[in-house]
Amino acid sequence: MRPTLRQRPPRTLVLVGLMGAGKTSIGRRLAARLGLPFVDADHEIERAAGCSIPEFFDRYGEPAFREGERRVIARLLDQPLQVLSTGGGAFMDAETRALVRQRAHSIWLRAELDLLVQRTARRGNRPLLKDADPHETLRKLMDLRHPYYAQADITVDSGDRPAEDTVDRVVEALQAYLDTDADSQPPETRPQPAAVES
Ligand SMILES: Nc1ncnc2c1ncn2[C@@H]1O[C@H](COP(=O)(O)OP(=O)(O)O)[C@@H](O)[C@H]1O
Ligand SMILES: O=C(O)C1=C[C@@H](OP(=O)(O)O)[C@@H](O)[C@H](O)C1
Ligand SMILES: [Mg+2]
Hints:
Layout: E1 12-16, H1 23-34, E2 38-40, H2 41-49, H3 53-60, H4 62-76, E3 83-85, H5 94-103, E4 104-110, H6 113-121, H7 134-149, E5 154-157, H8 163-180
Parallel strand pairs: 1-3, 1-4, 2-3, 4-5
Shikimate-3-phosphate binds near residues 53 and 128.
C-alpha cells in the first residue's frame, strides 16, 4: 500500500522548484493520492489569458507574465484546501512567498541539473529555455533560485525514479512536518509575526 496522510492537511499544499522538477506531474498525482483538488498556476494563467505560456511571453513579455502569475496565485490561495503547482519563477516573488507562508504549506521539489535538462528537453513549451543553451540557463537559474526555494517548509528530492515513488516521499515528508511543526495550523488560527519597526 502506498502511504497517505493520517489527517487532512490543514492548508493548501504549494509545490515550488525549477522547470522540470515535476511540480505539475507530481502535484497532480499528490492531489489524487490525498483526495484533494489539483490546480496548476500555469494552466490557470493560460485559461484566463486564452493562450499558451509561450504565446503569452511573445505577446505581452515576461514582466506581464509575472504580474499575472502573482495575481492568479493570490486568487488560488484564497480557495479551499487543494494542491497548487506553481511555475518555476513564482516563488521568486516576495509577495507570493509571503502569501504562501501565511496560507499554505510549501514543498520544494529539488532535482539535479542533468535531470532537469533531460525532462525539459521533451517539450518546447518553456519560453525561458527556447533560445540559449538550456543546460547553461538552468544552471544559472539554479544558482539564482535555490536560495529562495530553500525557504520552503519541506524539501523533497525529485530524483530519477517512478513518479509515484516521489509522491511517497512527499507524503512521508509532509506527515513528518505536520507531526512536528507548530506552524501546521489552519491559516485562520496561525499567529502572525509582530510588526518589526524599521
Ligand atoms: N519521476 C518523475 N518525477 C517527475 N517528473 C517526471 C518523472 N519522470 C518523468 N517526469 C517528466 O518530467 C517532465 C517535466 O515535469 P513537469 O511536471 O512538467 O515539471 P514542472 O512542472 O516542475 O516543470 C514531465 O514530462 C514528467 O512526466
Ligand atoms: O521557471 C520559470 O520562470 C517558468 C516556469 C514554467 O513553469 P514550470 O516550472 O512548471 O515549467 C512557466 O511558469 C514559465 O515558462 C516560466
Ligand atoms: Mg509545471
